[in-house]
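Worked Example 4.2. Consider the chain below.
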Amino acid sequence: MTQNSKIQPKLWDRYRTAKAAAEALHDNAKTDDRRLTVDEQATFDQLIAEAKELRSKAEQADSDKVALAELDRLDASGGASSVTRGGFAEEVINQLRHRGQMIDVGSSAPSNNPLQPALQIANIVTVEPTKLPGITHMLPEGPVRFAASLFPIRMVDSDQFSFLRQNVRTNLAAPVSVGALKPTSTYGTERITAPVTTIAHLSGKIARQWLEDEKDLERFLTVEMIYGLMLGLDAQILNGDAIDPNLEGIFNTAGVQAQAFDTDALTTCRKALTKLQVNAGIDDVDKIAFVINPADWEAVEFLASQATYHPGSPPTDATKRQLWGARVVVSTEVTAGQVLVGDPDAAFVAARGPISVSFSEAVDDDFATNSIRWRVEGRFGFGVTHPGAFVNADVVGP
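Applying the procedure from the previous section yields the following structure tokens:
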């Protein structure tokens, strides 16, 4: 008998002991129809971590895939806290990229740090189309853009965060005679405390057999649900009314400039740019972005195609998706008739940990019917540091 064969049974015995103890905690709580206590949850997590380490070592001597599947099932549904699902995460990561940065979905696979702590959610802007045999609904071809992708991200460690917001900007610099008093300019700020809220959704029942038969179904569901989560975040960033559990969106932030309709949508957008130049001192169009509803973007492009401009300076660029030299994000979450124009660096997205991509069969009769449900959620906040760096433009006339 080899040394490896002597060690392997002991490892599996220790693995099964740790796994059984975790199952007992889970089953006792389920029998009592309650969640695990804080102490029980800590013990459960420790047992799962120990069992995973033992399993990993034992696998080197024995490829017991049944035991691996059992532990992963327990890990996905046993605790009071959702356990982030891995495995397919790498494929999702490869589909959610921008400027070389990407989302960290996390992993439940054995590693030194199974729950990865960071993500770059602000930089998720492109989802490659998913083409799966037998599934008729696909993600749209071409780039999918989110308003959230415009803003820098700050990681926070609480359910609230604070920041300074500029509320006064009065420039009085002027020539001064020798010995005369200098004028005083005013740059006022106020401290804002904002909440972090959970944005989440569940899938309906999914047959376990489908997941076994369609190898790409996990990836498809994950990409679809992250896409939906990002739309929910966009809606809050733009339109949140600050009434719990909503965030305070840009359109409802005091101090944001307003541009009334003038002549047509194309002219109105250009005048909004002028307001940024005059009142906020923002003159670099490379820093400015438009967020516009698809119907309004269509109207703007039609207007631009029908108007006569100097050949070297058309107002729109369909290839680069630009308007008056500034980038454009087309979003269904901005209300038709409204256009947001501004400097994204004058606001930020706060993220409280990574996006959680989880699944469970411990809902209703899911276990009895061989069904699984997906859950995707994230905890986010939003802060506008310089409201005057944004303009709410009304592009629909009376």
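The chain has a mean pLDDT of 75. The chain is about 30% helix and 20% strand. Compare this with Example 4.1 before moving on.
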